[in-house]
Write a structure and sequence with these properties.
Elements (H helix, E strand, L loop, with lengths): L10 H9 L5 H15 L6 E4 L1 H16 L10 E5 L25 H8 L3 E6 L11 E2 L3 E2 L15 H8 L5 E6 L5 H7 L2 E4 L19 E6 L2 H11 L15 H5 L7 E4 L14 H16 L3 E4 L8 H16 L10 H12 L3 H8 L1 H9 L7 E5 L16 H11 L5 H5 L3 E8 L5 E7 L5 H15 L19
Parallel strand pairs: 2-3, 9-10, 9-11
Antiparallel strand pairs: 1-3, 4-5, 6-8, 7-8, 7-12, 11-13, 12-13
Helix pairs in contact: 2-3, 10-11, 10-12
Family: Belongs to the amidase family.
Protein name: Amidase
Pfam families: Amidase
Length: about 475
């Protein structure tokens, strides 16, 4: 029996259809590559496309499937962000210039391949992942499939756009200040920032001084959890090695009755952060849904203290470390060069103090998780900006605009704890908005169970952007 395109838009759906012999990997990968090509001039989600290699790997997956082999993602097309090494491809991370191809896969890519996944390409990211938009002279503008005049967010905007447009069923991004959760919110997706170290960052023992982790983007909680399970695990050289979880199992489990703190407060940053009324209305709607589902929800605020003083040295030091890898630093954005200089100034004793403060910050902010199980906040303070809004600003003006739009995500990067952004509806202009479920250390299973319960009620995965994916009559065998 054949399968139609509409039946096979999800990661888990595609894996099941392949295992049951209802479709071939060659057909799914070909469709993915055709959709990428058809939208590259509009959505512009990909920096690198592995068309020839992916088709060869799909043919091999079909041979393995026919021989009876079964793996979690055998033959399923996925994408990774262009800060993640794929053997034979350069890792430019949003930068201009010529980068040498990598000799080896990153550990997370090795794990994807071990599960049978086909990497169809590497998705666009802003330069060294610094901003919540995905634009730059090295690759152009990556656009939001819900409205091409707006950004899908960043820095994992290419991965989010690829999933929202139906080019791949799921993709990996990285999150150093919300860079998975922000594009998830602005692209109507589920985005998981896992516990620090849940997914290996090797060949780096940690990324951006421990604030950055790898996480999945997908339309459904099940798909995001499946990709998280497959990608999770550690290399011997990793600095952070949390105990294993079963994410997909959690997605099928009732969360029980939880105590949920609803917070509108953003951490102190010396800059104004007004909350857009459409965002407040959308997140209030999520809170009401949670209450209707039987959870206890009330407003309560975490004690963030001066957590930003720990974030800045770690973030800018990370930018400096990445900038040192760029073949031609003269091609870097002026704001990148400024951040790298700041990272060098704040290195040494300041950076060590920032890292040493983490345990105290975890205790202070974590006190919320005595009386409450989950913290609910907006994912962003605004709907997605128009393309070009931030790209031409000075470094300081960019920072101000970025903090104003996205003040809620980054503290959890300092803590290293998990968070999940879920679709919360749309602005009055029809732009996607998100709500953020935040938990304590190793709390992904509870957050995933709660997100799945919300999805069952709100049915956000049934709504797709107009005109995407590119229409097909079916998947050719």
């Amino acid at each position: 029996m054949g399968a139609t395109a509409g039946e096979l838009e999800g990661l888990a759906e595609q894996a099941r259809a392949l295992a049951e012999g209802r479709v071939t990997s060659t057909a799914l990968v070909r469709r993915s590559l055709e959709r990428i090509e058809a939208t590259q001039g509009t959505v512009n989600a990909f920096r690198r496309v592995r068309a020839e290699a992916a088709m060869a790997e799909a043919a091999e997956a079909d041979r393995r499937l026919a021989a009876g082999e079964r793996l979690p993602l055998l033959g399923v097309p996925v994408a990774v962000k262009d800060d993640t090494d794929v053997a034979g491809e350069p890792t430019a991370f949003g930068c201009a210039g010529e980068f040498p191809p990598k000799e080896r896969d990153a550990e997370v890519v090795r794990r994807l391949r071990a599960a049978g996944a086909i990497i169809v390409g590497k998705t666009n990211a802003c330069e060294l992942g610094q901003w919540p938009f995905t634009e730059g002279p090295a690759f152009g503008n990556t656009c939001n499939p819900w409205n091409l005049a707006h950004t899908p967010g960043g820095s994992s905007g290419g991965s989010a756009a690829a999933v929202a447009a139906g080019l791949v069923p799921a993709a990996l991004g990285t999150d150093g200040a919300g860079s998975v959760r922000i594009p998830a919110a602005w692209s109507h997706l589920v985005g998981i920032k896992p516990q620090r170290g849940r997914i290996s960052t090797w060949p780096d023992p940690e990324a951006f001084q421990g604030i950055t982790g790898i996480g999945p983007l997908a339309r459904t909680v099940e798909d995001a959890a499946l990709l998280l399970d497959v990608a999770s695990g550690n290399h011997d050289g990793d600095l952070h090695r949390p105990p294993a979880i079963a994410a997909r199992e959690a997605a099928g489990r009732d969360p029980g009755r939880l105590r949920i703190a609803l917070s509108w407060k953003a951490a102190f940053t010396f800059t104004p952060k007004p909350l857009h009324p459409d965002v407040r209305a959308a997140v209030t709607g999520v809170a009401r849904t949670l209450a209707r589902l039987g959870h206890f929800v009330e407003e309560a605020e975490p004690d963030y203290g001066l957590v930003g003083l720990a974030f800045v040295p770690r973030a800018t030091a990370g930018v400096g470390e990445w900038a040192d890898r760029v073949p031609d630093r003269s091609l870097l954005d002026r704001r990148t060069r400024e951040a790298a200089r700041m990272g060098r100034l704040l290195g040494g004793p300041v950076l060590r103090r920032a890292r040493a403060a983490e345990k105290r910050q975890q205790r202070r902010i974590g006190a919320l998780f005595g009386p409450y199980d989950v913290l609910l906040t907006p994912t962003t303070a605004t709907p997605p900006p128009r393309i070009g809004t931030l790209a031409k600003l000075s470094g300081w003006r960019t920072d101000q605009a970025m903090i104003a739009a996205c003040p809620y995500a980054w503290p959890w990067n300092v803590l290293g704890w998990p968070g999940v952004s879920v679709p919360a509806g749309f602005s009055t202009d029809g732009l996607p908005l998100g709500a953020q479920l935040l938990g304590p250390a190793h709390g992904e299973p509870q957050l995933i169970s709660l997100a799945a319960q919300l999805q069952d009620d709100l049915r956000w995965h049934e709504r797709r952007p107009a005109g995407h994916p590119v229409p097909y009559d079916g998947v050719r065998p």
